[in-house]
Design brief:
The complex is a heterodimer of chains A (about 260) and B (about 325).
Chain A: H1 2-6, E1 11-15, H2 19-32, E2 37-42, H3 45-55, E3 59-63, H4 71-78, E4 83-88, H5 92-100, E5 104-107, H6 112-125, H7 134-143, E6 157-162, E7 165-170, E8 174-180, E9 183-188, E10 192-195, H8 199-205, E11 211-215, E12 218-221, E13 225-230, E14 236-240, E15 246-248
Helix pairs in contact in A: 2-6, 3-4, 4-7, 5-7
Chain B: H1 13-16, H2 23-48, H3 51-72, H4 81-134, H5 139-155, H6 157-174, H7 186-204, E1 208-213, H8 227-240, E2 247-256, E3 259-266, H9 279-292, E4 297-302, E5 308-315
Parallel strand pairs in B: 1-2
Antiparallel strand pairs in B: 2-3, 3-5, 4-5
Helix pairs in contact in B: 2-4, 3-4, 4-9, 5-6, 6-7, 7-8
The chains are: A alpha/beta (about 260), B alpha+beta (about 325).
Chain lengths: ~260, ~325
């Protein structure tokens, strides 16, 4: 592969999910660098990787926002198999990251002068092997928010059957869950539904900062607790905001509502 | 509070201007104003206070005046104070019985009005702030569209012109300063979305098919601004764009039980239960709550065929014909 860098005409793959944008980059490249061979056009990250593997281009132009696998992920997967130039319409963070790093970028719509400059830089860079740029890419993906993926994901939606449809209830709307026979009752301010998922599984998947289990059969949204009182037996009773329901706290969970 | 009585500001004589009065006359007037204010305060208190409390205060006052008078008087003559105080209590009881109920109703009504006004104001401010947040035009969308137009100018000028017109139509209704002073209708919101979808259809080419099935008759119904747009953007961004083969997006509306329901249905990748509930959707929910207090809702369902269906339900209301033709 190393031999191809020095020999013959350089080649490139252009990846963007919008055909017009691919066309534009290719048109401008033809003007700025007539010898450059465009060997392939990809409309998403996966296609771009497949093309790099089969066609061995010297350069890949990658749009940052593509469906499925975005430009940054694609560049990571390519890890030094080709020189990468990112293409983006607007992304302040990404641009500042490029300016500090070794990665080149083009802004859409690409101006001919700017494309010419990139081609100039690429001619220089082609003399060396491509840099895997792992560190810069790591930084970039963090800036673009992809770093959040490593955080534990909690359930944000509960699916409940309503007739033939499945209704998606955001957990932020849910006041409490309560076990009822084989089902679990989901209660929101305006709505209630039964789901099959038992309390035991729910508590594993819900964000513990948002939901507390207060009884073997009850999980309540912390924000929805209006006040906690005691009944005549001395049991703690949770009053739920926006609902006249009262939920009993079992002894095991008494510590949750200790006085401050 | 100051419906039928002098301004409790007190020394308002000076502000009223007029010929300067003698010093003693001025002082007299101030003292009188002071008495009037104190009297009305006392009357209000009397009206609102419970019988139990009035009895307690009377008893305490009676004891106190009796004690004070017995200490103060050096045996020569018994003070008249307890007698006068007793008279005051009797008068108070009579006043409370005769006029207390009406006054109490007035006082509580005034307070309720004030609270309602504050709440209304708070809601309006909140809604305005959230609307401004939702109305932001995404820079990514704008720049990508301009880049596409730039390319079409060179390769297909008639299509470039059409796309630019769609963009102008979109900006006209999406820019907040262009929307001021109007009661948004479903028709306007549908127009905005169809301009947006025309642009996206050019950019995504075969990957996006759109179906508009909003009955003509419902286009004059009141519908909050930018909410439909948020649902459409979500459907494209999270439903159709991540799907390499794309899909179909349909906007439909119907009225049932006095509720206007507007649906945005897509055949995209569908919802992940762990997907972060988008800021856009949360914003729509909060705005509906601020605008309609529980009489409106946003529902997200998964249709049997897959994809996502987002529905906004609001009370069905027709925009009244404008009195001034320039405002609509």
């Amino acid at each position: 592969m190393a031999a191809s860098f020095a020999s013959a005409a350089p080649s490139a793959v252009v990846a963007d999910d919008e055909r017009l944008m691919r066309e534009q980059i290719i048109d401008r490249l033809k003007e700025a660098w007539p010898e450059l061979l465009i060997v392939g056009e990809a409309s998403n990250g996966r296609e771009a990787i497949a093309m790099v593997q089969s066609l061995h281009p010297d350069i890949v132009f990658l749009d940052i926002s593509m469906p499925g696998m975005d430009g940054i992920e694609t560049a990571r997967a390519l890890a030094g198999r080709a020189h990468v130039v990112f293409v983006t319409a607007h992304d302040q963070y990404a641009i500042s990251a490029f300016e500090h790093g070794a990665i080149d970028y083009l802004l859409k719509p690409a101006e001919p002068e700017r494309v010419a400059l990139t081609c100039q830089r690429l001619r220089e860079r082609l003399k060396q092997a491509p840099d895997p740029m792992s560190e810069v890419l790591e930084q970039l993906s963090q800036r673009l928010g992809a770093g959040d993926l490593k955080r534990r994901e909690y359930m944000r939606w509960v699916q409940a059957s309503v007739g033939a449809n499945i209704r998606m209830i955001p957990t932020s709307e849910i006041l409490f869950f309560r076990a009822e026979d084989k089902y679990t009752l989901v209660k929101t301010r305006t709505f209630e539904a039964l789901i099959r998922k038992p309390i035991k599984e729910l508590i594993e998947e819900l964000d513990p900062d948002e939901f507390w289990q207060i009884h073997r059969s009850t999980v309540v949204r912390v924000d929805a607790v209006e006040q906690v009182s005691r009944d005549f037996r001395g049991h703690q009773i949770v009053h739920v905001r926006g609902s006249d329901e009262k939920l009993e706290v079992s002894r095991t969970f008494n510590h949750l509502f200790k006085q401050m | 509070m100051n419906t039928d009585r002098p301004n409790p500001g007190g020394g308002s004589t000076a502000a009223r201007g007029g010929p300067p009065r003698s010093a003693s006359q001025g002082t007299l007037r101030e003292v009188w104003d002071g008495i009037v204010v104190v009297w009305w305060r006392f009357f209000d208190w009397l009206a609102v206070v419970s019988w139990k409390k009035l009895l307690l205060v009377s008893l305490l006052g009676l004891i106190l005046t009796a004690m004070l008078s017995s200490v103060g008087s050096s045996g020569h003559r018994v003070s008249e104070a307890p007698k006068w105080f007793f008279l005051l209590i009797v008068t108070s009881v009579i006043i409370k019985v005769v006029a207390g109920g009406k006054r109490r109703a007035e006082v509580t009504a005034n307070e309720a009005t004030k609270q309602a006004e504050t709440e209304q104001l708070e809601r309006t401010v909140l809604e305005a702030r959230m609307e401004a947040l939702q109305a932001q035009i995404e820079p990514h969308f704008l720049f990508n569209t301009l880049a596409s137009i730039d390319q079409l100018i060179q390769t297909d000028p008639p299509r470039a012109s059409k796309m630019q017109q769609s963009l102008i139509r979109y900006l006209r209704s999406a820019m907040p300063q262009m929307r001021e002073g109007r009661r948004p209708t479903l028709g306007q919101q549908v127009n905005l979305c169809s301009a947006f979808l025309e642009i996206m259809a050019v950019r995504m080419e075969g990957r996006l098919q759109t179906v508009m099935s909003v009955p003509e008759g419902l286009k004059s119904a009141v519908f909050p601004s930018m909410m439909l747009q948020t649902l459409v953007e979500n459907a494209i961004k999270h439903g159709l764009e991540p799907q390499p083969e794309g899909g179909k997006l349909e906007i439909s509306a119907e009225v049932a039980d006095g509720q206007l329901a507007v649906h945005v249905l897509d055949t995209g990748v569908g919802f992940m239960p762990t997907a972060e509930a988008g800021v856009g959707l949360a914003n729509v929910r909060e705005r509906l709550q601020a605008l309609y207090k529980g009489r409106a809702e946003l529902i997200i369902t998964v249709p049997p065929a897959g994809g996502t269906c987002a529905t906004i339900k609001v009370p069905y209301e027709i925009v009244p014909a404008p009195a001034d033709p320039t405002t609509v």
